[in-house]
Design goal:
FAD/NAD(P)-binding domain; seven-stranded mixed β-sheet; alpha/beta; four-stranded parallel β-sheet; 2 domains; globular; 27% helix; single chain
Length: 255
C-alpha cells in the first residue's frame, strides 16, 4: 500500500508527528513494534509535562493516542525489517506486509541495553524484565534480582521491595544469584536505530545524526525523539521533535 509518509515508532515523537501530518492532509501510516506510548508509559508520575504535573505516563499517552485515533490515523503493530530507497521512493518491509511511501519519520527511541553474554547464561531460563512497574506484580512475594548501578536501578529496587519478598542488587559484571526467580535489567539504554544503519549517518554511539530540523543525511528520512543526536532527551523535546520533523517532511514533499 502507498502512503505519503510512514512514521516508525508510536511514542511521543512519532505520535506528535502523526498528528501534525494528518492535520496537514497527508496519508500516513504509523508502525509500532511494541506498544503505543513508548517508554514513558511505565512512569508512575510525570512531573515535567507542562499543565499536568503528576500525570502517569500511561494516562498521558492514552490521551495522545486517543487524539491520533480520532483523526483517523492508521496504526499497525508490526516490526520493521528493512527500508530501501529507490528513485526517491521508499519501500518498507515489516514482519507482516510491505509498504511504500515518499518520506519516513524515524521515531524509534531507545531500547534497554541487554545483559552481558555471561549474565545471560547465568539467567538461564529465568524471566528477564526491563520494567519493574510493568512486570513487578508478577513476582509478588518472590525473590528477584536487579542488575544495574544507576538511578533507574535504584528506582526499580525501591519499587520491587514493596512487592517482592527479597530483592538482590548486583552490577552488570556480577553473577546472578541462583535463588533469584526473575531478573530485572536496568543497565542503561541504547538507540534503536539498527533498521536505518545503512540508510542514514549515525554518531559514534549509534544515534541518528540530525539537527533541530530533524533532517538526516538521507533525503526523505527524518529523525525525531530520543533516537537522534541531541543534548536533551525529555518528553517535551520528543514532542517538539515530532512537530519539527513534520514541518521538515512537508517542505520536502512540496519539492
Amino acid at each position: 500500500m502507498k502512503y505519503d509518509v510512514i512514521v516508525i515508532g508510536a511514542g511521543m515523537a512519532g505520535l506528535t508527528a502523526a498528528i501534525y501530518l494528518k492535520r496537514a492532509g497527508k496519508n500516513i501510516l504509523v508502525l509500532e513494534s511494541n506498544v503505543v506510548g513508548g517508554q514513558i508509559i511505565s512512569a508512575l508520575a510525570v512531573d515535567n509535562w507542562p499543565g499536568e504535573p503528576g500525570v502517569s505516563g500511561a494516562d498521558l499517552m492514552k490521551k495522545v493516542n486517543r487524539q491520533v485515533e480520532e483523526l483517523g490515523v492508521s496504526v499497525r503493530y508490526e516490526d520493521v525489517l528493512k527500508i530501501v530507497k529507490k528513485n526517491h521512493k521508499f519501500s518498507v518491509a515489516t514482519d507482516e506486509d510491505k509498504y511504500s511511501c515518499d518520506a519516513i519519520v524515524v521515531a524509534t527511541g531507545t531500547e534497554p541495553r541487554k545483559l552481558s553474554e555471561k549474565q545471560a547464561e547465568d539467567a538461564g531460563m529465568r524471566p528477564i524484565s526491563y520494567c519493574a512497574t510493568c512486570d513487578g506484580a508478577l513476582y509478588k512475594d518472590k525473590t528477584v534480582v536487579v542488575v544495574g548501578s544507576g538511578n533507574t536501578a535504584k528506582h526499580e529496587i525501591k519499587y520491587l521491595e514493596g512487592i517482592c519478598s527479597k530483592v538482590y542488587h548486583i552490577h552488570h559484571d556480577e553473577p546472578i544469584p541462583e535463588e533469584a526467580e526473575a531478573v530485572f535489567v536496568a543497565i542503561g539504554r541504547v538507540p534503536a536505530t539498527k533498521i536505518v544503519v545503512d540508510l542514514v549517518e549515525l554518531d559514534s554511539k549509534g544515534y541518528i545524526e540530525a539537527d533541530e530540523d530533524c533532517v538526516t543525511s538521507c533525503p526523505g528520512v527524518f529523525a525525531a525523539g530520543d533516537c537522534r543526536t541531541k543534548e536533551v532527551r525529555q518528553l517535551v523535546t520528543a514532542a517538539g521533535d515530532g512537530a519539527a520533523a513534520s514541518e521538515a517532511v512537508l517542505r520536502y514533499l512540496e519539492k
